[in-house]
Amino acid sequence: MKMLIRPLEDNVILEFKIEKNTTDSGIIVNTQEKEKSSVGIVIAVGPKVSEIKKNDEVIYKNYSGNKIKIEEKEYLVISSKDILALL
Question: Across the strands, what pairs with 21?
Answer without folding.
Answer: 30
